[in-house]
Amino acid sequence: MYHSQNPATGELLASYPPHSTPQMLEILGATQEAFEAWAQVPFAKRAELLKALAQLLRDRANQYGALITQEMGKVFKESVAEVNKCATLIDFYAGQGEALLAPEPIKAGFAKSYARYEPFGVLLAIMPWNFPFWQVLRFAVPNLMGGNGVLLKHAPNVFGCALAIEEAFLYAGFPPNLFRALMIEPEQASLLMEDPRLKGVTLTGSERAGVAVASKAGKELKKVILELGGSDPFVVLEDADLEKCCQTSVFARCFNAGQVCIASKRFIVVEPLYDRFLEAHRQIMESWVVGDPMAPQTQMGPMARADLMIELNSQVQQSLKEGARLVTGGKILDRPGHFYAPTLLAEVTPEMTCFTKELFGPVSSLVKAKDEEEAIRLANLSPYGLGASVWSRDLARAEKVAHRLESGMVFINSMTVSHPALPFGGVKRSGFGRECGSQGIREFQAVKTVVVA
C-alpha cells in the first residue's frame, strides 16, 4: 500500500493500493483506445473541454488547494494560487493551441509543400510532489490539446492529488481513460516504456531519475523530455535596487519551503553590496513566519517528507565543515512535522557542498564576487543550468549578462518563474526539451512533410 501523510502533523491521510503490472498494461490499452478516438476530435471540441476543466479548477481552487497542503505541506494560499495558475495555463492552450499546431507552408519549388503536426500517441508523465497540480497539468494540457493521451506516474506522497486530477478531467467531460493515474513502482514504469503502445516519456525530478529514464527511453528509441535539478544563480550587480532585490531574494528561496527546482539557491553578490545584502537578507529571513501551512499568517510550512529534511540538514552541516559560515537557521525545528529553519550560509566558495549540489530546501548560499566578470564565472561554475536571475538598474547591461549565463531561462530584476506562454526547461545537467509556450505543445508532435509536385 502507498500512504499519504500530512507533513505538518504526521497524520495518516489515506492509503492507496498499487496497480499490478497486468492492471497497468490494461490501463495502457484503454488509454490507447481513447487516444485513437481523441486524435480525430476537432481542436474546437478539445478547447471546449479544456475550458470546462479551467472553470472546474477555479470553482474548486480552495478544495484542491487544501488537498495539496495536506499532502505535501505547501502554504494554503500558495496551493490555491497553484490551482488557479493551472486554469490560466489551460486558458492559454485552449485559446492558442490550434494556431500553434497549424500546418506551416514551406516554399521549396513545388506546387505546394508544408509541414503538419500530428500527435505521437500515449505518453507517460513521471511527476514530482512539489507542485502536484501544476507539474502534471503543465504537461498534460498541451499534449491533450495536441491530440495525445496521457498516463501519469505521480509521486507516492501525492496520490490524492493524482486521483483528484484524473477525476477532474472526467467531470469536465473528457473521454474516460484519456488521462489516467497509475500507482506503480519505478520498475513497472520501466516495463511500461518497453511497450510499443507507449510513444514518449517526460520526467520532472532528480538527476539520478533522469539518467535512468533517459537510458531506458534511449534503449527503446522513444522520445524523452527531462526537467531536472537546478542550482540557480541570483546575480546581484552593484547598481541593483537593493531593497527590492533582498525582499525578492528571500521569497525566491523560501517559497514552497525552498522545494522548487527553479528557486534561486546561489546568491552571487558583487563585493560593494555583499555586506548590505547579507544583513538585509538575514533580517527578512528571520522575520518569516514558519508554522501551520493552513494558517493565514504562515509564510513557510514544513518540508514534504522527513527524509528530505534530514538530507538537507546533512548538506548544511557538511557545508559548515567545509568552511561556510552560518548566519541564521541551520537546524531542524523542535516541533511536530518536518520543519526546517530558513537558513543563510555566507562566505560560500565553489568547492563547498552548498555550491556544487542542489539544496532542495530553504537554504540561501551567499557567494562574494569581486566584480561582474567574476559573478558571471561563478554563476556558470555549476553542472546545472535551469534558471537564473540578474539584478541591475542598467537593463542593457543586465541583458548582456543574461546572454552569457549558461541557463535555460534568465529573469532580470525578478525571481525565476514559469509562465504558460514562455518555454520552460534547462541546459547542461538540468535536462533537455521544453514545456509551455509553442515549444511545449510541439515536443510530442510528429512533424510530417507533405509535398504536392
From TrEMBL:
Molecular function as annotated in GO: aldehyde dehydrogenase [NAD(P)+] activity; succinate-semialdehyde dehydrogenase (NAD+) activity
ATP-binding in keyword set: no
Domain Aldehyde dehydrogenase: 4-450
Keywords, alphabetical: NADP, Oxidoreductase
Gene3D superfamilies: Aldehyde Dehydrogenase, Chain A, domain 1, Aldehyde Dehydrogenase, Chain A, domain 2
InterPro entries linked to this entry: Ald_DH/histidinol_DH (IPR016161), Ald_DH_C (IPR016163), Ald_DH_N (IPR016162), Aldehyde_DH_dom (IPR015590), ALDH_GabD1-like (IPR044148), GABD/Sad-like (IPR047110)
Presence of keyword NADP: yes
Family per record: Belongs to the aldehyde dehydrogenase family.
Official protein name in the record: Succinate-semialdehyde dehydrogenase
Organism (species): Candidatus Lambdaproteobacteria bacterium RIFOXYD2_FULL_56_26
